[in-house]
Amino acid sequence: MRLSLAEGVALRCPEAEDARVEGPGRSLRLGVLAPGVRAVFESLADGGIQETEVPAAAGSDASLAWYWLDLAGDGGLLSWTVEERGNLLMTLTPASASFLRRRATFDALVPLQLSRFAHTRMAAGHAVLDCPTVHATAVLHDRRVVSLLFDMARPTLLARLNQFNTGIESVTLRELVRLLAETGILVPEGLDVPASEATLTALRQWEPHDLLFHLRSRGWGHQTRAGATYRFRG
Q1: Dihedral angle at the C-alpha atoms of 181, 183, 185, 187, nearest 10 degrees?
Q2: Residue 40 and residue 57: Cα distance in Å, rounded?
Q3: Which of 42, 88, 101, 173 lies at a CB distance of 3.0 to 4.6 Å from 141, suitable for a disulfide?
């Protein structure tokens, strides 16, 4: 999985005492960067870096680099891209400062299914996966990802997915499922799962289209707001 700065985000003054990452309406002050951290963030700004390459690039500063990467990701400043043999499959980007990637929540032994709030739409010539409960959007670069989403319409184990004809290699498939699960686009299902959409009273009261409009029209720093934005002024 490749990490990179989200669209419109830039690294400022990496060699100064006030190094920072800045994007539209959000920023993260890094201060004085350790050499390994600076190397990682310069790679983020120069096309990205594979997650597996972070320890080597950061060296003895690896723990500190992961700390800043987590803050930048939760602050809506990073994008995650899943690739397979050089082909882009999906790029996920936070849509507001409320985004949170829940690392270490993915369990391959727990059945997962697509959130009932998730939907696809077209934007700038791309198919986009959107889900108002997770404050993130995912550009679908490859039609095989759409096939995966179709298979996830009902609770499914990762091992079972490997038997379906998704056409995606097992290692890459696991990366896709892990990213979607850690961001909440794939959710555990069932009344025996305390955090499932079936048991959270607040979510049960919302219809997907109502929650989508509520989120977009209330501000909350979302990138695709609707209502009182005066976008057709003049």
Answers
A1: 50
A2: 6
A3: 88
Nearest to 134 by CA among 172, 104, 102, 177: 102
Q: What is the pLDDT of residues 18-70, one digit of tens each?
A: 899 988 778 899 999 899 999 999 999 998 999 999 999 999 999 999 999 98
**55-66 as b/e: b if 16+ CB within 10 A:** eebbeebbeebb
Its pTM stands at 0.79
What pLDDT was estimated at residue 191? 43
Contact partners, residue 188, CB within 8 Å, separation at least 6? 110, 111, 112, 155, 195, 196
CA proximity to 128, closest of 211, 136, 75: 136
Question: In this predicted model, which residue has the larger pLDDT, 40 or 116?
Answer: 40
Confirm if 4 and 79 have CB atoms less than 8 A apart.
yes
Spatial neighbors of 229 by CB under 8 A, at least 6 apart, are none
| Residue pointed to by tokens 């829940």 | 102
Of the chain, the percentage scoring pLDDT greater than 70 comes to 83
